[in-house]
Amino acid sequence: MTKTAGVIGWPVSHSLSPRLHGYWLDKYRIDGEYKAWPVKPEELGSFITSMVEKGFAGGNVTVPHKEAAMRLVNEMDAEAKAIGAVNTLVISKGIIQGSNTDAYGFTENIRPFIKGTNKAVVLGAGGAARAVVHALKKLGFARIVVTNRTPEKAEALAKLFSVETAPWEYRMAALEGADILVNTTSLGMTGKENLEIDLSLLPKTALVTDIVYAPLITPLLVAARARGNPTVDGLGMLLHQAVPGFEAWFGVKPEVTDELRRYLLT
Ligand code: ATR
Questions:
Q1: Is 66 annotated as catalytic?
Q2: Which of 133, 134, 146, 149 to mutate to test the pocket of ligand 1 (most atoms within 8 A of CB)?
Q3: What are the mean pLDDT values of the chain's consecutive 10-residue runs (266 residues total)?
Q4: Taking CA 199 as the corner, what is the angle to CA 193 and CA 203, rounded to the nearest 5 degrees?
Q5: CA of 127 relative to ligand 1 center, distance in Å
Q6: What number does the ligand 1 atom closest to the CA of 125 have?
Q7: Full 3-state SS string of 150-181
Q8: Strand pairing partners for 146?
Q9: CA-to-CA distance for 131 and 43, rounded, in angstroms?
Q10: Is the CB of 127 within 6 Å of ligand 1?
């Protein structure tokens, strides 16, 4: 029987996930399909119920449903509980398991490039920042400094994960001695404002990574490369976070390859 999964969002037309999973379904010759499901917030509960009734394998949950989905699943993994959001649903024998694979995706994307784990600086304090801070803690970073335009949000996130904050106005100073700098804000994304940050105090060995992947090489990554810092773009996080879901729905652990990256960029 053809297995069905998909991405639930509102809107969802911009999502790369259908092409990504479609590529893997073809590559591994799997009898499956992965759809884009535009679902309004008020219809999320009934939609997820209908997925169970139709015998779907599960799906991904994206903006703006990741937090609401927590209340609609039967079980949640530790990552989803810690991050406070569900991005993957796996349905088996009528039970809906909710998990969060964003921290896993972030970690797998940067893992080969991590040198020091003393200090990390995180720009932003939204949903993506929660996943990133959770991942950095699991990676063993001794100091994690969160800086955000709205200080209350930085404080709330810092309290949740027992990490530090720095004022947004002084974000440049926070870079001193950092081993990694992560942008989790939407700044630098196509159509959004640029991220204003002077990297002078950042050690040249520090890894710089952005969760924005459109453009692939954000102005932050351009500036980091120009001064010799190693960089990792944000596309890999999206690809890696998709792996556990695909494996659970379709029974094959898919590979993240350069060919896949090239396919998605064309
Ligand atoms: P996500 O779930 O993708 O993290 P989000 O929760 O909307 O999305 O968070 C967006 C992040 O980008 C926030 O940290 C936001 O800062 P605020 O908390 O102050 O809103 C940050 N951001 C968005 N536009 C910004 C801007 N013009 N300047 C500074 N930070 C900005």
A1: yes
A2: 149
A3: 97 96 98 98 98 98 97 98 98 98 98 97 97 98 98 98 98 98 97 96 98 96 98 97 98 98 95
A4: 145
A5: 9
A6: 14
A7: CHHHHHHHHHHHCCEECCHHHHHHHCCCCCEE
A8: 122, 165
A9: 26
A10: yes
